[in-house]
């Protein structure tokens, strides 16, 4: 949960976040200025935040820079000078990109065919200390709704695998008359001359009917 806001400006909100009373960590939500003349000050401000921040730091948002040509399709080639600002920042400050699942590009000009342009403008940058604190963390790219950007959701514990529920027959069910009727219904649905052929299907139907009934 958000513990407190530290600093804010037109292009960033710097916050302190803590969950369940654990040691807080710093998270800066950003919107990189599209205007080239404002980009230099924007990156300078992030450098300044790093000097004042705790070791565990995460940056989330619209960088508004394409760092590599592979992260853009359509339109003009990327601006290498702007890309250098981003790469220099991550190198000097020691930030790495959090893996993001769900797609390669985060922005679209909402056009099609030869006029279509897609770019990766949004990112999640993390310090090595933050990475150690949340080793399972990943970013998930969600569908764009009422925006030309795809939102990114950060899952600190990674994707949780759904455990397959193991079927267990409860002996107390034998005390219920309805239990026997459910078993009879399951086997009657797939009756036939070849009992061996229908065995697996009948057992599966029995499990399903008893689970629903229970």
TrEMBL record:
InterPro entries: Endo/exonu/phosph_ase_sf. This is Endonuclease/exonuclease/phosphatase domain-containing protein. It comes from Hibiscus sabdariffa (roselle).
